[in-house]
Amino acid sequence: MFRRRLTNVVPAAVKFSHQHNKFFSVEAAQRVAPLTDGLVQSLQRIVGNNNVSQAMAVREQHGKDESYHVCAPPQVVAFAESVEQVSGVARLCNEHRVPLIPFGSGTGLEGGINAIKGGVCLDVMKMDKILAVHPEDFDCQVECGVTRKTLNNYLRDTGLWFPIDPGADASLCGMCSTSASGTNAVRYGTMRENVMNMEVVLADGRVIDTAGKDRRTRKTSAGYNLTNLFVGSEGTLGIITKATLRLHGIPESSVSAVCSFEDIQAAVDTTVQVLQCGIPMARIEFLDEVSIDACNKYSNMDMRVAPSLFLEFSGSPKSLDDNAEIVGEIVKMNGGSDFKWATDVDERNLLWKTRHDILYACMALRPGCKPYSTDVCVPISNLPKVVVESKKYIDEAGVIGPMVGHVGDGNFHVFFPVDQSNPDEIKTVHDVSVKMALLAQELDGTCTGEHGIGLGKRELLLKEFGETGIEVMQQLKQTMDPNGILNPGKVFF
Ligand SMILES: Cc1cc2c(cc1C)N(C[C@H](O)[C@H](O)[C@H](O)COP(=O)(O)OP(=O)(O)OC[C@H]1O[C@@H](n3cnc4c(N)ncnc43)[C@H](O)[C@@H]1O)c1[nH]c(=O)[nH]c(=O)c1N2
Ligand SMILES: CC(C)CC(=O)C(=O)O
Ligand SMILES: [Mn+2]
Which first-to-last residue range defines the signal peptide (predicted)? Predict the structure, then answer.
């Protein structure tokens, strides 16, 4: 049979292995078996001719996310329009032992969609229907391509919203697959707490509902928790085609504020004390002085350039006043000042848009660079130590590393703007990132609170779980995907 060779044109790139402390080229990992014309034709039969593309521009667009990980294009991109098509593509790839990579909105930060072993990228964004909203039960069901902003626009007149808010307008099933969260997690939890059920296509094309068909209960004791097995599985165990999500009532009133501190210790101590007092914060986000400076420039703001907290209170007007007063006292006790209140909706939206755009503000500090981001999360009482030590690591390494954090969850990020083509630079920031993660792990924390493992944190996962823990995960993977077709090379080596 005639075989067409689809070469993977991958820019010279490096992948760092700290186990062996050396660099090796991603290109080596990219030498993959060619796809047959027959397989491409079968794909066209399943999803339609117009939904299969081998154009280089389309492949490159699907071979990278928003991070510094170098583009690794799939050999072909297929666009699915129904669960039957997703199932057909999975069955085909499984029969032919071809890698299959689910693709949402491509906003991930750990190289989760990069096709490091070639294969078929399955873009599911055309499956974008909001299937049901049950306002009386506070839940809804969406197809995988619906984004969080589309859902919230749709819900606008219901008095309900879906609060999980990664800065990007990500697909809701991509968010399930990375266990995403954001600035509202301190009040509403992460994707884990807000997904009730999912329809998932398995590697061999079978379709399951993780909590049983049409189940949408607040609680369940029925069998194993398959829903939470798939949340955070990063496309390695199945393709999520629908999600049933919890909704929440829009609070009666909200007010936001910014306040600043002399040093980062004071800002983070304030956070810990506020939470320990049991104040039900709607949001509490930390930005260091480098981030504030970047925001001022990018978002045209005039905040004092100092370590700061962005706060939000919500609830009844009376509870807002009471809580804001207590927090004000704690801020003052820690030497904080310069409270700026945002009461009307436009002012509040501007403040949170500034926060959500921070990645782009920080990237503007070094135009042309890409973000390498850290994501450690620790028990709240250990947060001050990890933040302060991390700042020292950044300063010692002499790199640009703005810090921002969902500190109410014990989670924060450093964004390093890096030149993707400079291995020395990547190694320098990687070393800082590993030191931070090891410290967090030592202090009962995790290397990733919300971005996932992808390509970038596989060795840290081994550290976090130990060999037996990883072995159990690999046994699960082997059971569910015996031919290893689903997003190979992610989460584990
Ligand atoms: C500016 C900005 C700001 C933020 C963030 C990004 C950016 C660009 N993020 C990260 C990102 O938005 C988050 O990881 C999303 O969950 C990714 O969703 P996508 O749909 O883009 O998945 P994307 O397409 O990038 O895929 C990510 C992973 O999920 C898998 N996948 C995607 N769809 C799937 C499906 N239907 N079934 C199975 N697997 C699937 C992919 O294979 C891949 O492994 C983030 N995150 C966060 O948690 N908190 C934050 O604060 C932010 N902030
Ligand atoms: C670190 C990032 C790039 C995005 C993020 O998670 C955030 O802004 O909170
Ligand atoms: Mn974040």
Answer: none
Range of the domain at 25: 14-123
CATH code at position 191: 3.30.465.10
Burial class (CB in 10 A: 0-12, 13-18, 19+), 200: buried
Pocket test of ligand 2: the residue of 181, 295, 358, 375 to mutate, having most ligand atoms within 8 Å of its CB, is: 358
Residues 315 and 392 in one domain: yes
**Residues 258, 236 share a domain:** no
Q: Whose CA is nearest to atom 17 of ligand 1?
A: 108
459 assigned to some structural domain: no
Report the half-sphere exposure of 476 (CA within 13 A, side-chain side): 15
> What domain count does the chain have?
3
Each residue's pLDDT tens digit, 46-56: 999 999 999 99
Do 245 and 257 lie in a common domain? no
Ligand 2 binding pocket, CB closer than 6 Å: 109, 167, 358-359, 371, 373, 404, 413, 415
Instruction: Count how many Cα atoms sit within 13 Å of the Cα of residue 309 in the half-sphere of its side chain.
Output: 34
- Give the per-residue pLDDT at 14: 31
What is the rounded CA–CA span in Å between residue 446 and residue 452?
A: 11
State ipTM: 0.99
pLDDT tens for each residue of 162-210 = 999 999 999 999 999 999 999 999 999 999 999 999 999 999 999 999 9
